[in-house]
Design brief:
heterodimer; A: 226 residues; alpha/beta; 7 helices; globular; B: alpha+beta; 2 domains; 4 strands; rod-shaped; binds adenosine-5'-diphosphate; binds magnesium ion
Chain lengths: 226, 327
C-alpha cells in the first residue's frame, strides 16, 4: 500500500536562489492500494519524475508523511530503506544500466544484492532474458545495444525479483509500437499477479488504450486522483 | 578485438573459457568497476613508501628503547674512584690510602663490588692517551677503584660515602656515572617519543592517502554507486566492497615497503653490531643482538597488518560518510 499525506518535495532545502519557496511538489495526498494500477500524468516539468523519485526512495519527502509498501519513508532508517528498495522495481527514463557489466550481470544484480544462490540466479536470469528476447545478447555490454534493447534489459532487471511495486518513468519512450504493446502486456500481467504498478507517461494514446485510474500532476500539485 | 573461432587455437579457447568463467563466477563480480576505478598502482606505491618509512622509524625506536633501558639501569649503579698517592699512609690506621678507601667502600651496604684496577689494566686504559709505557713519563699514577652499587641506591648514601672516603683518604676523587647516564637516558626517551610521533604521522598520512584514493574512486563511480544504491545495496555492502579493495591494496603496499626496508635495516644492524657488543655486558652482546632482531621482526611483520587495518578502516569511514548524500 502507498499513502501520501500532504507531501512536499524541494531540491533546494525549501528556498530557491531568488528567495521564493522551492517546492517542486506540494500538498501531495493520495492512496494506492496493494495490487493497484495507476497512470501518472501531466505535462513535462509537472513533477512526475520527482514523485517517482519519492516512490523509488531516491529522495525523502521535505514535508508531510509518505508510506510506501507499509513503511513510513519519512521516518525509516537507512537500512530499512535499502531493504525496501529491493521490493521495488524501477524502469528509469534513462535505463541506468551498468556499462561495464554484461546484460546477464545487469539483470542478475538485484538477485545478487539480495544474496540469492548463484545456481538459482543463473536459471532465473536466463529465463527472463529469453522472455524479453535478449537470450542471444546475454554477454553483450549495454553500450553496444540499441535503445530498445537497453530498455528491455532495464525492464528485465526491474521485474527479475518479482517486486511488490513497479515504477516506470516514460517506459515506452524509446520503444516502437509493438515493443510498447509487449511492455504494457508485461506490466498488466505483473499487476494481475498482485504487483502494484505506477507508470508515468505523457503519451495519451497509451492511456486511452489501457484504461486505469490516473494521478494528474500540474506544476507540482495533484489536480486529479481517479 | 577480432573474435577467434572456437577451438582455432589453445590460447583462444583459454581466453574464451576465462571470459565465460568471469561472467558466471560471482567471486570475480565487480559491479562497481573498482578494479579499474580504484587507484591500483598509486595507492600501493604510496602505502609502500609509508611502510618503508615506518619500518625505519620502528627500527630507530626499538634501538633507542634498548639504549635507554641500558642507560637507565646503568645510571647510579657505577662509580669510579681515584685515589691520588695511593701508597701513602692513610689518615688513620696502619694501611695505605688505597686500602683505607677500599675498606670504606666494602663497609658500605649499597656497594656490591669494589675492585682496584691492576697496573696492567690501568696501562691498557691509558695507552690510547699516554702511549705504551706511562711509567717512563714519570707520572704519579692514582689508584683506580671501580665500584658497582645496587641499582637505585639513594643519593643520600652517596653523599655519606663521599664524606667517609674523604675522611679516610683526603683528596679522593669520586666520579659518578649516574649524572650523564641519566641525561643520556632522558635523551633516549625523548628520541623514543619522537619516533613514536613520527610513526603516528606516517600512519596518519597513510590513512589520508587511502581516504583520497577512496574519494577519487567514489567520484569516478558515482553513477554506478547511485544505481547499486537504488537497487537496494546497503551502506555496509557498498562500504565493504571498497574496504575490501582498499585493504588488499594497502596490505600489498605494506608488504612491499617493509620488504624494501629489510636490506637497509640489515646494513644498519651490521654497522651497529660492534657498538652493541661493546655496550652490552661481556658475553651477552650476541644474545642482545638476537633479541633485538627478534623483537624487530615481530614489529616489522605487523606493519603490513597495520597498513591493511588502516586501509579497511579509512575506506569504511570514507565511503559511509560519502553515502550519506544519498537517502
Ligand atoms: N535534481 C533536481 N534538482 C533541482 N530541480 C529539479 C531536479 N529535478 C527536477 N527538478 C525540477 O523539478 C520540476 C519537476 O521536474 P520533473 O519531476 O522532472 O517533471 P516531469 O518528470 O513531470 O517532467 C522541474 O521544474 C524541474 O526543473
Ligand atoms: Mg520526467
Amino acid at each position: 500500500m502507498i499513502r501520501f499525506h500532504e507531501v512536499g518535495l524541494s531540491y533546494t532545502d525549501g528556498v530557491e536562489s531568488d528567495g521564493r519557496a522551492g517546492l517542486v511538489l506540494r500538498d501531495i495526498s493520495f492512496t494506492v492500494p496493494s495490487g493497484g494500477f495507476r497512470w501518472l500524468l501531466g505535462p513535462s516539468g509537472a513533477g512526475k519524475t520527482s514523485l517517482l523519485r519519492l516512490l523509488t526512495l531516491a529522495v525523502r519527502p521535505s514535508q508531510g508523511e509518505a508510506v510506501v509498501l507499509g513503511q513510513p519513508i519519512h521516518l525509516a532508517s537507512r537500512h530499512a530503506l535499502a531493504l525496501l528498495r529491493r521490493r521495488i522495481g524501477v524502469v528509469f527514463q534513462d535505463f541506468r544500466l551498468l556499462g561495464h557489466l554484461s546484460v546477464f550481470d545487469n539483470v542478475a544484480l538485484p538477485l545478487r544484492l539480495d544474496g540469492r544462490p548463484e545456481g538459482q540466479i543463473r536459471a532465473d536470469v536466463a529465463e527472463m532474458l529469453r522472455w524479453v528476447g535478449l537470450a542471444e545478447r546475454m554477454a553483450a555490454l549495454p553500450p553496444t545495444l540499441s535503445g530498445g534493447e537497453q530498455q528491455r534489459v532495464a525492464i528485465a532487471r526491474a521485474v527479475i525479483n518479482r517486486p511488490a511495486l513497479i515504477l516506470a518513468d516514460e517506459p515506452t519512450g524509446n520503444l516502437d509500437e509493438a515493443q510498447a504493446e509487449r511492455l504494457m502486456q508485461l506490466l498488466i500481467e505483473m499487476n494481475r499477479l498482485g504487483t502494484s504498478v505506477i507508470v508515468a507517461t505523457h503519451q495519451t494514446g497509451l492511456v486511452e488504450r489501457y484504461a486505469a485510474p490516473a494521478l494528474r500532476l500540474e506544476r507540482g500539485r495533484l489536480v486529479g486522483d481517479g | 578485438m577480432p573474435r577467434r573461432r572456437f577451438g582455432s587455437n589453445a590460447g583462444g579457447w583459454w581466453a574464451m573459457a576465462k571470459a565465460r568463467a568471469s561472467r558466471l563466477r560471482p567471486a570475480r563480480f565487480d559491479e562497481l568497476g573498482l578494479k579499474r576505478a580504484f587507484a591500483q598502482r598509486l595507492l600501493p606505491l604510496l602505502v609502500a613508501a609509508m611502510a618503508f618509512l615506518a619500518a625505519l622509524t620502528l627500527a630507530a625506536m626499538l634501538a633507542t628503547a634498548g639504549l635507554a633501558r641500558h642507560w637507565r639501569e646503568g645510571a647510579g649503579a657505577s662509580l669510579t674512584i681515584q685515589v691520588p698517592a695511593p701508597e701513602a699512609p692513610a689518615a688513620s690506621g696502619g694501611g695505605s690510602r688505597a686500602d683505607a678507601a677500599l675498606a670504606v667502600l666494602r663497609a658500605d651496604r649499597s656497594v656490591l663490588e669494589a675492585r682496584r684496577l691492576s697496573g696492567a689494566e690501568l696501562d691498557r686504559l691509558l695507552r690510547p692517551w699516554l702511549g705504551a709505557a706511562p711509567e717512563t713519563l714519570g707520572l704519579a699514577m692514582p689508584a683506580v677503584i671501580t665500584v658497582r652499587r645496587a641499582a637505585g641506591s639513594p643519593g643520600a648514601t652517596e653523599e655519606g660515602l663521599r664524606a667517609r672516603l674523604a675522611a679516610a683518604a683526603p683528596g679522593v676523587l669520586v666520579e659518578a656515572a649516574g649524572a650523564w647516564l641519566s641525561r643520556l637516558a632522558a635523551l633516549a626517551r625523548s628520541l623514543e617519543a619522537l619516533a613514536a610521533l613520527a610513526l603516528l604521522i606516517v600512519g596518519g598520512v597513510a590513512a589520508l592517502v587511502v581516504a583520497i584514493a577512496t574519494r577519487a574512486s567514489l567520484a569516478a563511480r558515482r553513477e554506478a554507486l547511485e544505481i547499486i544504491h537504488g537497487l537496494g545495496a546497503s551502506d555496509a555492502y557498498i562500504a565493504g566492497r571498497f574496504a575490501g579493495r582498499a585493504t588488499w591494496l594497502a596490505a600489498a603496499g605494506g608488504i612491499v615497503g617493509t620488504l624494501a626496508a629489510l636490506p637497509v635495516l640489515a646494513l644498519l644492524a651490521r654497522l651497529a653490531a660492534p657498538v652493541a657488543a661493546l655496550t652490552a655486558p661481556a658475553g651477552q652482546g650476541l644474545m642482545t643482538m638476537a633479541g633485538a632482531v627478534m623483537a624487530a621482526s615481530v614489529w616489522l611483520a605487523s606493519l603490513p597488518l597495520a597498513a591493511a587495518i588502516i586501509g579497511w578502516l579509512t575506506a569504511q569511514i570514507t565511503v559511509r560518510r560519502w553515502l550519506h548524500r544519498l537517502p
